[in-house]
Design brief:
Layout lengths: L95
Length: about 100
């Protein structure tokens, strides 16, 4: 993957989007979207989040020194389909 740019140095160069969120709100985006959150400065309000990752049936595993690689890839090698216990198939296209 290409090196991620330093957004802190050039905030005016990029279109940075944000939303006020309430419990139960959901944000869905492509996993190649650079995303993050500011730290929680409150000592009284806890921030909680739940994240899932979904992919199409055309996605394959890629070995490498990436932050996105699962810590215990279950015997997958580059090019293998994500179809195993760690990456369960929830729905298959018919035909």
């Amino acid at each position: 993957l290409p090196q991620c740019p330093s957004f802190d140095d050039k905030r005016d160069t990029y279109r940075i989007l944000s939303w006020d969120m309430e419990p139960g709100d959901c944000v869905v985006f492509d996993s190649l979207t650079i995303h993050g959150s500011a730290g929680n400065a409150s000592s009284r309000v806890r921030r909680r989040g739940f994240a899932t990752r979904w992919c199409g049936d055309d996605v394959t595993f890629l070995e490498g020194d990436f932050m996105l690689v699962p810590p215990l890839a279950p015997g997958l090698v580059t090019g293998d389909p994500l179809d195993c216990e760690m990456f369960p198939v929830l729905w298959r296209r018919s035909g």
